[in-house]
Structure formats: structure tokens, C-alpha cells
Amino acid sequence: MSARIARSNPAMKLMVLFTISLSWAFQQQGGPPKYQYRDPVTSDLLLCDQCPPGTAVKHHCTADTPTECQPCPERHFAEHWHWGDSCQYCTSVCKENQLVKQQCNSTHDQLCECAAGFHLVVEFCIAHSTCPPGYGVTAAGTPVSNTVCERCPDGHFSAGGSSTEPCQPHRNCSDLGLKTLRWGTSTSDSLCGKRPPLECSQPHTVCHTDVTLCEEAVFQSIASLRLSSVPLERLLESLPGQRVDRKSVERLKKACSPQQQVLQLLRLWREQNKDQDKLYGIIQGVNHCERKVSRCNNLKNLTLDDLLKVTNSLPGVKVQEEDVQAVVSSCLPRQYILQVLHLWKTANHNLDLAKGLSHSLRVLRSQGAPRYLLKGLKTIIRIIGTTSAHKMYEKMFVSMLQDESCFKAHKPLNE
């Protein structure tokens, strides 16, 4: 389509130009956009159709003929309507760390975007940020945006160093039928291990590396607070901190006698809450007790004969000789006496360990036992049988039951 602008007086020309411009504006809404072109032969100002995307002007319009367009040549494009006589050249290569998203065609240039793991900053592709330990990805990076990290919530962790991994929930060892060896933190998962059979029903024919003799002595003093008369479920609900899971309690009830259930529950509860501040004193007391017993010089070189003398002098159910031999064959010498006494206590859970040792000491003295053996037993009695220590543990425990808020305020799992 074309139009001729008459060569007359200036006022007339202005009027015609205004009319043409107005007409052009209206035509743009319904037809091809226009452009002005002066015919080099007639000097007339013409209004020509622009060429559509993918083409370029081959011949401008005349007063009698419309604009003639031709396709863009290979590796060239025209993205919009225009009146140029050539198309734009396609981008030859993408920049560093960019990939071709869309190949060049007649209507679009070659489109590049950042490769996986990179995002655009100004004109360069920069690697996505990795989240630090304790933080996980909440929004993965894209070709145009960076990674978004947030601190892991309670019960979740992230070791960090990833630009894609969100925080992961801690493993629930109890649900897997395993024992929790280490509670998870914001940067590490829970560590699970095989759950050993409950000791009240397991024959003790091998060495136990986690000697619980001192622990049992401590909890024996706590259990003496008439806790055995309290229903196990009620005691479970009363204990502060993280509770022992129901599956473990059911296993305990099936495997242990009523007298042993309280001790075993306290032991499981201690294991569940070993990182709590209020339990620190009790745990340290147990560890200190076991260190002192194992380091006692008078107890480091006991023979099988010495151990049999001790077991025969203790009151109640006797430890079998083959079990004592198993201790000697599987344990270190410094562990002998603790293991043997542990076997005796397991078979005589109703008897007090300190009183049993005092009885053994009197019997051995009357039998003329070696001095080093008598001195070693006195040391054990002094370490685990101290009345003041028992009262201290009882006071600690009662204080904890009365002040459960101290556990709620302390959150060790993700701090």
C-alpha cells in the first residue's frame, strides 16, 4: 500500500502529513505497520508496508506497487517487523559456561543460557553457591538465580557443601530397631548401632566393653526411692527430657523381672539423654567410678583362681565357673573383676552390691586370701558403696523430676 503527498503550499503539506500520520496510526492496529519512504524518481513521500519477521525489504513500495520482501538468508534473522534491506547475523557462539538453549532461525537469534550449576550475573555465568554446614537448599539455583539456603530446623541436618541438597531428617534409630550411639546435630545424622539384647535375659559368656557395674550401683541408689512400686508407664511419663520409645519399654517388660525393670528403664533413659546438662553429674560419676576401679593396681593381675575365690565368697546365686573362664578368655585383665561382679549382680539383682562385697571380704579374710585381693575389694567397696555419693545421686534425680523445665530449655539436637 502507498500514498502520494502532493507538492503544494506548506500549509497544505502539513495537513496532508497529519492526515497520513493519523491514518498510519489507525492502520497499525489492523494491518502491517508502515514506514515512510521517498520515491527517488518522483520525490513523492510514500507510506509503505514494513516486512514481517523472518524477511527483509527487497524492493520499496512505489505509488503503484506494494513493498516486496524476501526471506532472510541462512544464519540471519529478523525478529520484528522492519523496513531494513538486510537481516541481522546470528550470534556465532555462546560465552563461557553457557549452552545453546535455542538454535538460530529466521525469526530468532541463537539463544544462550548458563549451563547447569551456573547463574547469570550481569553478563557472566557464575557457579551456584553451596550451602554451609547446618544449612540446606530451600530453592535450587536456576540459570538466572542463585541458590537459596536456610538453617536446618530441629530434627534435620546438612553436612553442607551442596548446592542442591535440602536438609535431611535425622534417622530414627528406634524405628529401625537399632540403638542410638550418637544423637544427630544440625551438621550430622544420628549414628545408629545394633541394639544389644537386654542384659537381664542374656547369658554373660563374653566380655562386655560397656561395663555397667558402676552405673548399676548409681541407679540402684536411685531405684531405692521406692520407684519399683510405681507403674513403669507412669515412671516413663515422669522422666524429663527425651523419652524412651515404647518399643524398647515393651521389650524390657517382656525380658526383665519387675525388680529389674526400673533399673533397665533408668539405663535406657540415661542413654537417651546423655547430652543433657542435668545428667552430666551422674554420667561423670559413673565414668569416674569405672575408671578408678579399672585402674586399681591390686585388681590388674588377678588370676582365674582369684576370681573363683571372689565368686565363691559372694552371697546369693553363684556365678558358674565356665562363665568366669569365659571372662578370662575374652576380657582384658583390668576388666576381670568388673565383669565377674557384673555377672554376680545380674544373677542377684535383689542383693546390694556393696553389702555383697562386704560379705565377700569377711569370708576371704577368714580364708586367708592374698592381701592384694582383699585390698582391691576394699577399694571397690569404697568407690561404689559411699553413702554420701548415693545421697548425692538421689538428690540430683529428685531435683530433675521436680524441674523438667531444665530439659525443655536445653536443646542439644540442633545447636
From TrEMBL:
PROSITE patterns: TNFR_NGFR_2
InterPro entries noted in UniProt: DEATH-like_dom_sf, Death_TNF11B, TNFR/NGFR_Cys_rich_reg, TNFR_11B, TNFRSF_decoy_receptor
SMART domains: TNFR (SM00208)
Swiss-Prot/TrEMBL TNFR-Cys repeat ranges: 71-112
Cystine pairings recorded for this chain: C72-C87, C94-C112
GO cellular component, one term: extracellular region
Subcellular location: Secreted
Domain of life (superkingdom): Eukaryota
An individual GO BP term: apoptotic process
Keywords assigned: Apoptosis, Disulfide bond, Glycoprotein, Repeat, Secreted, Signal
Residues annotated as domain TNFR-Cys: 71-112
Protein name: TNF receptor superfamily member 11b
Source species: Amphiprion percula
